[in-house]
Every structure is written in structure tokens, then in C-alpha cells.
Design goal:
The structure is a homohexamer. Helices cover 40% and strands 21% of the residues of chain A. The first copy, chain A, is of the alpha/beta class. Chain A has one domain: Acetylglutamate kinase-like (Carbamate kinase, 3-Layer(aba) Sandwich). In chain A, the strands form three sheets. Chain A has an eight-stranded mixed β-sheet, sandwiched between helices. A four-stranded mixed β-sheet of chain A has the order 7-6-9-10. Chain A has a two-stranded antiparallel sheet with strand order 3-4. The two termini of chain A are 31 Å apart. At the A-B interface, helix 1, helix 2, helix 4 and helix 11 of A face helix 1, helix 2, helix 4 and helix 11 of B.
Chain lengths: 297, 297, 297, 297, 297, 297
């Protein structure tokens, strides 16, 4: 952006962020990073700066990421065609090795480097480090290989890192109770971490504006709803399949004590800042009790 | 200000503050609060919010204040006519009692309440608390009573308070080595405190734009100069009398290790934020080495 | 006192203080300082030394003070005649400003300086600092202006100071929930602080020997009574009006967990030491259970 | 091993380890893990148990690893033929991506899981996490791509982890001052980390018995030599090329304060335990002063 | 022992100790030291080395000792003939003085010196230090003088010492509620300390192999039994008189929360290490629930 | 003492102790306890109460004791006749065993119990605990057996105990570099400890009034002298032989940084309190510089 602003206006706008900064001072926010915001270079850089700003004003952001497109690309390079059943990647042993290498060895460290370039002290983790995420095989939809369901979160390493000023970046790979690696859904992992860490917010960055009452009517965006309402929508079958795990992650985390969960549009620059530091909440917010959305302290 | 801004622009502007927030994270800034910014209710409220914002983004602001006009007003109410010699208030015992009551009992606690209203935990101190400011009688211009020169700063109580998250607000009254109370210049007190606390910045809020090369030519504002240049200007006699103690406080503190000292225009809303968080430095900056004013980290 | 004592007798007397020193090691004592002990220079100096001694033998004394006579004197200087209704000062806005200036700016800092002169590290606070005392308007006797009833005590700042070795001196001014300043009864404030701080003792220094069963019969001094008995005496109407808020402060604090509350005669030199460190309790002691006054550990 | 031992003999042998356990209590040991010990499953498991034992008896082991064979294998799967110049892998951007994915995403997390299976709390790091290893392009042998030379070690994250009881496992990937990833020699990285961490020992696990005076004469194994002697051997050209970076890592680290550096035979089961806990040092030890090899405290 | 072992076998045996070291990391073990292990110089030295090993691998050993034979010897030197009633030493005032001098002044400090010679930081205590063991006169078998029954354990001093890295060595002398010294049974004292310290194990070193089902049949050694079974055996009268206080100490401590209590044969070299670090438990183990003796983590 | 005093006088006397309490707050005082004060029951009890008082007013008293008369008595009971050469006890192995048993097992624990009876938390140590006092054989006067000269003080255990609120009581037995026990002079041991602990004062309790300029003239008591003067007196040969080690302990400790050393008359009740808390210093004081004896802060 060219600097069209005069400094007085800049200062005034900064000043207006005070109530939001005050509200989130010291709070832990778990952010699922993904979609366009992870693919587009300009958006990516903006997200990194947003996270740095959040950290410097006293928020503890915890980043969780998957990396589906990069995995599929690497698989193709190695002559394997990706295959999905019910939205889940069929993950044989060789595929799991590629998943882990890409998520933990490439995507994760790429994010870490970008954050460090913004002056943070980021440290990459997979769910295998210090047994952060423990999983068992997911068999709800038959045997699709090393796809896991999280059964335990050991958040000690995250507390150690944040207490020492580091920003954890976590890839969605879990350690199985059998010692094998498991691919876990990153939205779900973020939700589980938000609960285990006592986070104030869970924020899922997506490639949609939010949740629509009618998926085909872009004017039906739901700005807020209760966990109970959201649960009913999931059960009603009216939700787009791709949105279901996201919405479930939100509902589960709110039911387990996270104050609010958000589905926001990662394609919009500074979507994190807009959600957190301005009067204009964006996307869809899921919260515990109905009709409750205070914006000022 | 009405909220004309769209949230995307707001977020972008916040994002632009990142380098400044990063630069001052954890830094101690001593701010002399005074002049119009202390008299005008709107400005006063804006300063309080600016201080709150500074605190929440990780800065330790230390406020120092005098309160000449309120003292004179109280004196008149009590039937005493204020008298000045060479810019210094003639301060007999009765006047000193009034000075102390007004500064410490009224002005100080008024600021404390406003800051607490903005969500801070402010605590008022005078230089007598825990012997924070120790003084001897100032005799440079003859005996004008209980006007003191600071000989010792015991900053322990300030460290105790800031370490526990409190914001200290300090009135310019010192304890004499003889046990009496002394009126000390608030600009000078701020400078001495900045040195004793290892502050990164000393900021004097005034009712002028800054230092002029030629006091009668408002276009001759000096945006930055070295301590050596400033010292020469003081000695040259070209400086307005009222500006001399301010400029000397700046030069002394920079010579004793404070990185930069600023004379800014407290009449301009959000002058503190403009100076600290934008690309547009305002007023006059005194620093150690010549020709040095980096604005980005 | 001339030193008539031989050193062996001095040592023997010191030695006899051991059980008392042992009993109060580490204990918090809230002391309402006022009356003659605050007006007479010799008594004042003796109290300061007594407090210093208490601190050095491991007691945490917390001083609370009002300052009625000084307020009235300042008001008269400013041409206002003090007015009382039912023992409470009618406190319009201008009066409140004078109250605050005198108590916080003069009386408080005077005590602080004297204590520091005895080698302590005293720090003055008003109830507005860090929102220590929060009040609402007292309307029990109609609208008499800025007279407040304490609704909340935030003792954090006192804990921070005592943990770091400072001795807090607190003036009886509270911050209103409406942001205004309120004049609160110092005996009551001391009682509320004693409860909030988990004090072992509340001691009210007064200008009487203690509580009389019959106010006109000086031989009817009550040396101890239970909170229940004291409550009955208050309700019976037999108590001198000026004594009522004192006795109520004692009864309330004992009912809320303070071990003992004392009304002692501040006109007697070293009354604090006599009460705390000798076998001869003085004045009137209010405690929870009847017939209980052990003097030795 | 079948349990042929009677318990008395077992206990006696344990007892004999006391002087060694005492000597290394609290010491940091940096271990370059590689070669056969990383490829053979039985050896691998034995190393993990050895590391667990070391940790439980009070040693802080820091593991550093490369993973050349796995990288070459992954490259071939992706249709790229590995190429080496002077022992260094020619590393174009695509190769670097594979290096990083394999080392950090596969090898590293595999070690982490095995250690955690032995009851440790291992955490994997690459040199990019918290800028642990910073490098510039290595140009000594022309431009062979993203091969780096370490210019800075930021050991803070390692201290944070070990202080909290975690065992760090570090892959030999560094962050460039230009933000790119660099492949660095794992022996060299281990040596630099040993210096930066104030390690007592650097241990390089290799696939040879140690350093031979005459490479063709297996009876010429050198059991110990000084750093100066080792430096002369490197300069003499008599050393096998593959051994040179290892020997240089040892010499450099000893010259920079590490007490002893060891080249040991990772093909021998429990080689770490034999070196550290028995009277029989194995392999080649490089130390500062000549003729000095005390074995008992 | 001559070093017959090759280093590979030594390392393998060390490696086999890992599960046991892991299991007891950080655990407190109270060990009653006595019998032959305290009289024979070779055994004594071996025990000291075993304790040092235990400390260095992360166990907190607490040593408790009596010293009957040395007491009797000293008494005879002073011309007093030891006398026992029901296994308890008849302890008149003069005898008690000898008991205390021998146990605390000779036996205790002898152990302390030997442990310090093995590189530990041992500190000797009697039950009188910081009122560690408080007793009343034991009158169950009539008045046999200053023989005490423990009524209170004040373990603060033990926690202070172990937290600072010291190894406490405690003699079985208690302070009476009447201020006199009391001789207490060392097995019982060890059991009481194990309970008060939350120990994982109580180990009594004796001069027998363990508990026999039939005292005359050496093949009837009981390797493990529950506290309930042991209680029944005590009550049945089938137990050798000398064994009764030992077995009772075990049963009481297990009933009060100690995981396991052991009666082991101190005549066997390294009996402590065999019990703790090998697969071959020795002696008799008393535990809470029946049929439960897992040996591997 | 019967309580003749009125409470006002008692309070006044307490109040006069303030300057002394303030001066010694937090100071470490090493006190050699011995002579009549250790033999006479009334004196003994008074000393214990004095030490308790000192501790409760914030002083860290460290007690060091010998116990010659009790040792000789025990020796005679065991049929050995005590023998002295040049004031030093001839100490064969058997004698050393008796010395250690009596000092550490009887005298030391007796003092510990008395102090604990006064509400302190005393812990007895010998110089063997944690290698507090290390000695070599004293051969200056030929071989008189296990008489030692202190070569090293390891004060860690004393710091651990005082930091946790315990009062250490130390017997004058040292551990030899050869592992044997050594009898060391308690005055000398106290002096060495005073230096190692950075004590403010060393106080030797004796059975004389102090140092006399002429031993036969009781009116020639020296109230203060410099270390240099004292050294000259020792060298002059004019000093009574029994006084020499005491005076040397004082001079050595003052030369090594202890502020003042005192020889006081332990036969006088409350001699410690008189010295420390009153205007009337007693006995003889040795200090660094001449003519310097300030009594008030």
C-alpha cells in the first residue's frame, strides 16, 4: 500500500485498536493456517506480519497447518496418484512418508523461516515431537491407511516454548499409539489443541467467506451462531461436505471450553487483524450462548 | 473521529505499525506530561488512551508531571499571589505546602484515575515515596525558597511497580536531604529518571511544535540535532528562556545514555503515537551522534 | 527519656519481649493512625519509631490515616466553613478536592517522610492508586456529597509493596465506581483493609483510653469483649456517637476473620509497643470468642 | 542378549560405572549420529536405549544427524541422480527441497519417535527453528548450490528445551542469511553446536574404527592424539578424504573449548556406553594437551 | 573384583539397567542401614558406593540407622552392662546419653564421611534436629526408661536438604515432647519417615535372607506377600521375635501409602543394587495388593 | 527477674533498641559459645533466649561450640586421663572418638534441643557434614595426634540452612583430607567460619571480662583496639596463654574482612544482648581501623 494516510489519521486508527488489544492481552489463539493464504505469496507475507503484530501486542498465537496441495504435488513427482475417499486422503505407508516429509520438512519450516524473518522466534513441531498429538487409526470410513483420529494431546512442549517466548508452528502429523505416523485433519488438530491449551479463540482460515445458510446463496452468510445451532446444521445435512470437519472442529472446541471459534476468509488480506482488532468481525463466529456478540470491553 | 475507515484499511494501517511496536517492545519511555495536553479535556483523554496503548503493546511508560497552573490557581484561592524569579517559582514554606498538595494530592491522582479508567493499573508517587527523588536547595539564582536540585534518584520503587505491571505516575516533588519537601522542575526530573531507569527515550510534551532555529520564524523548526549541537545552542543564548530547561534536560539525558530525547507538541492529538508508531517523527529529536535518524528496524 | 537504666536491665527487658516478637513474626497489622498521635510532634515521632521497630522485628504494619483537623484548617484558609451532619463531613466537589489534596498531598507524604527518616522504605497510596479502595456514594443520611461507602478492596498493590519490603501508608480517599473521588471514614477503611489483607490485628489509635461501659465513668473501661457483646452495645445506643464507627469497624473486621481488633489510646507514648510487646494489653480488645485473652505463646 | 548373568555380577558391573556416571553428571554431550548406526535397525534401537540411559543418569545428550543415503534414495525416486563434487552434494534448489524434506521431515522425526518410545521427551529441530544454525553459501569449491558454511549458532532454543527436560534432535539444515535453506555438513554442525553449548564432549559416530595412522594398516588405529597432532595430520594429506571433515570438526571444537572429541565406531553395539561408561575408551580421542588420558575421577 | 568382563558385555549389562533407572528417576527411597552391612568394612564400602550410584542416577536415598553393637561396646567400656527386655534396650539416663553419643556422634558421622568420600554431599541428622522425630515414652512393656514411640515426623529439614542436593543420614534418636532424648527403633523410624516423605520404597537391610514361612526351613523364604498377609503372620505368632518390629514397620508403611517395603539381606554385596536395578528381586517384598509384582516398566 | 517494670518503661526501652536492630537486620553473626555460659543452667537458658531474640529480629546467628570439660569427664568415665601439651589436648584415636561423640552427639544436640524449645528451628552440624570444615594434622607443636588445622571451609550447607530459616549449631570437629576426624579449636573454627560466611561480627563468649592490658590488673580492661594493636600484643608475649588462640581468631578474622570481633564475658547474663542491642558495648572489641567505635547508625 502506498502511504496515502497522514500520520494523525494513522495514530487515530491505532488508538481505536486499544480495546481489542486490551481484550486479548495474554490470550492464546490457535490458528489453522491453510488454503489460499498459504499458497499466494502476497497473502502469505501478510499473514506472517499479522502474526508478528499479534505476538508483539501480547497475544500467544499457535499456528497449525496441513498442506494438501503440496503433498499431492510431491506425490505426483514421485509417480503416485493421490486418491481420496469421502474427503480423506487414502494414505498407504509410502504416501504417509511423503505426507510427513512435505508437511514437516517443507511446509512447516517454510512458515518458520518466514515468521523468523518478521522478527519472531518461531519453532516448528510435528505432533510426534514430545508426543504432542497421539492418534489411533481412523476406521469410521473403512481402512484408508494411516489416517488418524487424535486421542490425546500433550501440550507441555507448547507451554515450554510459549513461556520462553517462542511461537510454535505445528504440522498435522500425529504419533500413533503403535509408534507409526498418522495423517490427521489440520482443522481438527487445531480444535483439539485449542481445547488442550485453554485457548480463547480458534480461528480457521479458509477459502470461503464463512458459513452460508444456503450454500448457493452468497448473500446468506451467517455472521454468528451458537454451537447448538451449528450442531443442528451439521446434522441436517445442509452443509457442504468440505465445510463439515471445519464446523465440527469449531463446535467441539466451543463445547469443550474455547470461548469462540471462527471460520474466516483467508483470501482477504489481513483477515486475522480485521477479525481481532476491528469492530467489523468477519466470517462466521461460533460461540456458546445464543445472541451474544459483544465487541467492546 | 467518526469511523469512516473500512476495516481492511484499518487493518493495513495497524499492520504498518509492526516495525515500531517491535522496536520498542520492552523499552522504558519516560514522558514528561504537561501543558495543554494536561489542561484540555479532550487532549487529556487522548493522551491517557495513547499511554494505555503503549503499555498494552509492551512499552513501559513512566509519567512525570508538574502542574504549575493548578498550583497558581490554588495559591490565589488561598490569597497568595504567585511570584517567579528567572522562571522559577518563589517557594516559601506555605507555597511549598500548596505545591505539594496540588501536585501530589490533586494532579497526580487525577492522572492515576484517568489511566485506571483506561484499563491500566496506575500508581501515583511523589519523589518522597521511598526517597525516589532526593534534592538539595537550588541556590544558583539566590534563595528562592524550597526549590530543589536533584542530587540522587532511588529508582527501586519504580522497578518494583513496573515489574508487577503497574504504571508509575510521578509528581515533581523531592525529599530534601534535610527532610523538607522541595519543588523540582518536572522536565529535569523526567530527564534524571530517564537516566536512572536506563530509558530508551525521554519525551517532553510541550506547547510548541519543537525547537526553532529562529524562534520568530515558525518555518525554522529543527527536526533533529545532536546533543553537542543542542548544547551549543543553549550556550549561544539564542534559545527562548522557557525552552532552556527542557533542552538541557534532553541534552543531559542523552549525554548520560538515553538513546533519544524528544520535544513534541502536546497540543496535537495523539502526538505520542505519531512520534512512536509512525514514519513521521514529529517535533525535535536530540540524539548522540550527528546525522543519524533511522526510522525502520 | 534519660538513660537511667543499666544495660543489664535493658537487656533483660528486651529479652522479655521475645514471646511477643515470636508471636507476631510475619504478621500483618493494620493500624489506623489518627488523633493526638498525629498532631503532637513528640507523639508523632514516637509512633514512627514504634512502626520502624515493628517492621524490623518482622511485622508488616500497614498504616491508614484520615486527617480531619488539617482538612478543616485548609478549608478555612480557602474561605470555606466546614459543616458536619451526623459526624460526617458535608463534602461538596470543592471540599472533596481539598480533602484529597490535604490527605494525599500533605498528611500522607508527611508520614511517609517521617517513616523514611527512621530507616524504613515507606510509600504513600490513596485508595485511587491501582483502585485500592472502590466506593459508592453514602446515602444513609441523605445526600451529603462525596462521602463514600467502600464496596471493593483491591489489595494487590499492597501485597506488591510489602513483598518488596516497602511499608504502605494509605489515605482514606476512595475511587468511585463513577470515577469521582470519595471521602471515606478512615477507621472503616482500616477495617476493610484488615479483612482484605488477612491481617492478624486491626488497631485503631484514638484519643480515648478505650471503650467505657459507662461513658461518664472513667473507671468503667472495658479491657476486652467479644464481637457479639460489642455489637449489642452498638445496638443498645449506649455508645458515644463518635465511638460508633470505630466500634463497628472493629466488630465487622473480627466477624470477617481478623483475629483481634483494638481501640487504644494514641495519647500514651509507645501505646503500639505496649499493646503488642508487653504483658499489659491496653485499651479495649474485641475478639471472636468470649473470655479468651492468652498473653503468652 | 540372553540373560546369562547372575544378578550379583550385574550389580557389580553397574557399580563399576559409578566413577563415569559421577564424572558426566550434568554434562552436555553433542553426538553426531550417522552411518550404519542409523541404517541398521538393531543398532538403531541400541543407540536409542544408550541415549535414554545417558539422559536418565544425568547427562544432556544433544543429537545431530544428516542422512545422505535417505536423501539419495528419495532423489532417485523423484528421478534425479545424486551428484557429488569433492565429497559435497551438488545441491540445486530442487535437491535442497528434497534434502530438507528427508532430513527434517523423515529422518529427524523417525529418531524422535524412537527416543520417545524409550521414555524420553525428544523434540526435533532443524537449524531453521529459532535460527539455530545460520549459514552462508559455501564457495570454497565453486558454486555447488545450496551447500552452506555455518556462520552463527543461536543455542537459546536448545537451552530452553534441555532446561525443561527435553532431548533435542537436530537435522543438519541451516537458514541462510538470505532466507534460503542450506545443506550443512552434520559433523561440522555437531562441532559448532558443541562449542556454542559448552559441551564436555563431541562424539562422532562413524563406520570406521577410528583414525588410522596408515589408512591401509588396520593395526595402526590411533587411540588418542592432541588437536595439534591431528591438525598436522590433516595438513599432511595422509588422511582419507572422507575422514577430513570429521577430523576437522574434532580439532576445531577442541581448539574452541570442548574438552574432548571422539571418533567412534557406530557399527559396534553400545559404542556410546563403552566410550562413556567403561574403562575401555574406544575409537580415537582428540584432546587439547598431549599425553593426557585420565580414565578415573 | 578383577575386571574379567569385556567392555561390550559391560555396556550391555548397563543398558539392561535402563528400565529400572527410568522407573526410579526422582523417587525417594528410605533405607534402614544396619547389621553386617554396617559392621563389615568391605560391605560397608560397597553400600556407600551403591548409595552414590543411586543418587547419581536420580534417586533420593534417605539413610536411617541405629547402631546397637557399638552402643553396647561403648557401655561396656564405661562399665555398664547392657540389658534388654523384650528386645528393647533398658535405657536409663546415663545409657541414653551413651546411645545418643554413639549413634549421633560416632556412627552417623562415620557414615557421612564415607558417603562424602564417594563424591556425595551427605549431612547427618538426629531426630532432634529441627524436631525431625518427636516421641513419647514407650510404656507398652513397662517402664524401661528413655525408649520412645514416634508421635510426629517433621520432614521439612529433609526436604530442604534433598532439594539442595544433600543426602540426609538420620540416627534413630528422637526428641521427647518433654524435651528429653529418646531411643527409638531404627526400623520403625525408617518406616515413619518413608510415610512422611511419600517414599516409593522402604528398604530394611538385615542379616537374614528375608522372611521365612517357617523360620527353621531356609527353603521357605517368602519372596513377596501383601500387607494383609504379613499382618496375619505377625498376629499368628509364627514370626521370630527379632523380625516382628521389621515386619511391622513394613506393613505400617505400606498401609500408609508407601508402594513397597523390602526386607533384604545386607550381608550380600550390592544387595541394594540387585533389588533396585535387576530383574532378580531379592529378599521379601511387602506390597498393598495381592499377587502383584511387575518388574518392567 | 520479677516484673517490676511498668509497661511504659518497658516500651521505651524496647524503642531504644531500634537503632541496633536496624543496624543488624539481615547480618550474619558467628558466635563461639563456651565456658560458664555452657555449663551453668541459668546462663545457658538465657543464652538460648538471647539467640532466639536475635533470630526473630532478623539476625542470622551461627553457633560454634567446643566442649572441653564434657570431653574430659567422658574420658575419665572410660578410664582415660586427659593430657594437654601447650593448651592442646593430646588426641590419640580413642580420644578423638570420645571427643567426636561428646561434642557432636551430646553437646551439640543438647544445644539444638534447647534452641528448638525457644521456638527456633536449630540443626546441628559437625565439620564433617557436607565437608564443612576440612583440616590437616596440626604439627606445630609436634605430633599430638588428631588435632587439626583448618585448611578449607565449605559453607554451602550453612547457606542452605539459613536461607531456609534454620539456625546452624556447629561442633568443632573437622574432616581430614585423609578421611580421619580432627579436633579443631572452636575459637579458630568460629573465626574461619565468620570469614567464609562474610559475617559482620565474630563474638567469642569467654569466662573473662575481656582482654586486659595487664592480666593482673582487673582495672586494665581494654574496651577496644585495632587488629594491628592486638597483633602486637600477641607477639609481645604479654598475653595470657589461654587468651592467645582467642585473640588470634579475632585478629585473623578482622584482617580477612569481618567488621568486628568481640571477646565478651559469658558469665554475665544476656551478655550477647548487651553487646548487640545496647549503647554499652561490653568486653573487648577488635576492629580494622584505629579509634573507631560508632554506636549509633
Amino acid at each position: 500500500m502506498t502511504k496515502l494516510m497522514n500520520p494523525d489519521l494513522q495514530a487515530e486508527i491505532l488508538s481505536q485498536a486499544l480495546p481489542y488489544i486490551r481484550r486479548f492481552a495474554g490470550a492464546t489463539l490457535v490458528i489453522k493456517y491453510g488454503g489460499a493464504a498459504m499458497l499466494d505469496d502476497d497473502l502469505k507475507r501478510a499473514v506472517m506480519r499479522d502474526l508478528a503484530l499479534m505476538r508483539f501486542v501480547g497475544i500467544n498465537p499457535i499456528l497449525v497447518h496441513g498442506g494438501g496441495p503440496e503433498v499431492s504435488e510431491a506425490m505426483r513427482k514421485m509417480g503416485k496418484e493421490p486418491e481420496f475417499i469421502g474427503g480423506l486422503r487414502v494414505t498407504d505407508a509410502e504416501t504417509m512418508e511423503i505426507v510427513e516429509m512435505v508437511l514437516t520438512g517443507k511446509t512447516n519450516k517454510g512458515i518458520v523461516s518466514l515468521l523468523n524473518g518478521e522478527g519472531l522466534n518461531a519453532v516448528g513441531l510435528s505432533g510426534k515431537d514430545a508426543n504432542l498429538l497421539v492418534a489411533v487409526k481412523e476406521t469410521a470410513r473403512g481402512d484408508i491407511g494411516f489416517v488418524g483420529r487424535i486421542t490425546q494431546v500433550n501440550p507441555g512442549i507448547v507451554h515450554t516454548l510459549t513461556a520462553a517466548g517462542y511461537v510454535p508452528v505445528i504440522s498435522s502429523v500425529a504419533i500413533g499409539q503403535d509408534g507409526a505416523s498418522y495423517n490427521v485433519n489440520a482443522d481438527t488438530a487445531a480444535g483439539e489443541l485449542a481445547v488442550a491449551l485453554g485457548a480463547k479463540k480458534l480461528i480457521l482460515m479458509t477459502d470461503v467467506e464463512g458459513l452460508y445458510r444456503d450454500f448457493n446463496d452468497k448473500s446468506s452468510l451467517i455472521s454468528e451462531l451458537t454451537a447448538a445451532e451449528a450442531r443442528r446444521m451439521v446434522n441436517s445435512g445442509a452443509i457442504d461436505a468440505g465445510m463439515i470437519p471445519k464446523l465440527e472442529a469449531c463446535v467441539d472446541s466451543v463445547e469443550d471450553g474455547v470461548e469462540r471459534a471462527h471460520i474466516i476468509d483467508g483470501r482477504r488480506p489481513h483477515s486475522l487483524l480485521i477479525e481481532i482488532f476491528t469492530d467489523s468481525g468477519i466470517g462466521t463466529m461460533i460461540h456458546a450462548a445464543q445472541g451474544y456478540r459483544p465487541r467492546l470491553v
